[in-house]
Every structure is written in structure tokens, then in C-alpha cells.
Amino acid sequence: MVKLNIGDKAPEFQLPNQDGEIVSLKNFKGKKLIIYFYPKDNTPGCTNEACNLRDNYQYWLDKGYEIIGISPDKPDSHRKFISKYNLPFTLLSDPEKKVIKAYGAWGLKKLYGKEYEGLIRSTFIIDETGKIVEIFKKVKTKEHSEQIIKKLNFE
């Protein structure tokens, strides 16, 4: 499994968004970025996380950040998820899990004592130069913005 660290260059990607348009990390050069990896559209934890980021979206824009969500779901699923919850940010589709794995967001998980491979909910904060400035592996879905704000000392 890939292990990225603070200070590492964020892995480049090219993935389709909810409208099938290709988005790459290069599109955000010179901007700060929050990339969050989540397992599945329309599931309780993923919905809580997306809605928390949505509810704080203007705060993030005011701080100079863009937000991107990445999951294995197809663009059509993302489009419906965005519409249902009025999400103002881009969701990218990675069904082959290439970018998910490049960021170390895929690996062994445990549920009820059983181990299995799956998506590890993770968030990466990227600076204007494309470097990782913070990594979250223990995401609090209902208060993720607050978790990021506290860690980045914005309070």
C-alpha cells in the first residue's frame, strides 16, 4: 500500500467528473485543494461528510480552497448525489481505483472482526504548489470541516 506523507507531492490524476469531463490535479495549480476520498454515494457516512463540506463550502472558498470528492462510483451516480444534496463541488469517478490507491486510500479494513479490502475514508489538504500539507485518516463525517479547521489552526 502506498503511504503518502506531509510534504510529499500529491499524485497527479485524470478522472471524469459527474458530467464525464476529465479533471486533473494540474487544473488546480496555484490553488489550495481539499481532496476527500469516500466509499459510496448516498450512504449515511458519505452523505454526512459531503453535506458537512457543503454547509461550510463558502468558508472554504473564502479561505482559498477548492473541494473535490473521489469515490469508485460512476459519473451518473455522482450527478444524482450532487443533485439530491445540492453539493456545490466536483465529484470524480475512479472505478478502477487507480487514484484511490495512489493516495493510499485503499487497503485492509476491519468490520465486526473480519478483515477485507476497501476504501479508507481519507482527506488530503494540498497547497498551491501541489504539496500535501495535511492528511486525515480518521475522518469525523459529521464534523469534517471543523476537524480540518482545527488541524490547520484556522480557529
How does this structure look, described?
The structure is a single chain. With 155 residues, the protein is α/β, with parallel strands linked by helices. The protein has one domain (29-151): Glutaredoxin, CATH 3.40.30. It is built from 5 helices and 9 strands. The chain has helices at residues 44-55, 57-62, 75-85, 98-102, 144-151, and strands at 14-16, 22-24, 32-37, 65-71, 90-93, 106-111, 114-119, 122-126, 132-136. The strands form 3 sheets. The chain has a 5-stranded mixed sheet. The model has no long low-confidence stretch (mean pLDDT 93).
Low-confidence stretches: none
- CATH fold node name: Glutaredoxin
* Major sheet description: 5 strands, mixed
Compute the number of helices.
Answer: 5
From the spread of the alpha carbons, the general shape counts as: globular
Structural class: alpha/beta
Count of separate structural domains:
1
- Radius of gyration computed on alpha carbons: 14 Å
CATH A-level architecture: 3-Layer(aba) Sandwich
Please give the order of strands in the largest beta sheet.
5-4-3-8-9
β-strand number:
9
Strand content: 25-35%
- CATH class category: Alpha Beta
* Helix and strand run: EEEHHEHEHEEEEH
Please render the helix and strand layout as text.
Elements: E1 14-16, E2 22-24, E3 32-37, H1 44-55, H2 57-62, E4 65-71, H3 75-85, E5 90-93, H4 98-102, E6 106-111, E7 114-119, E8 122-126, E9 132-136, H5 144-151
Parallel strand pairs: 3-4, 4-5
Antiparallel strand pairs: 1-2, 3-8, 6-7, 8-9
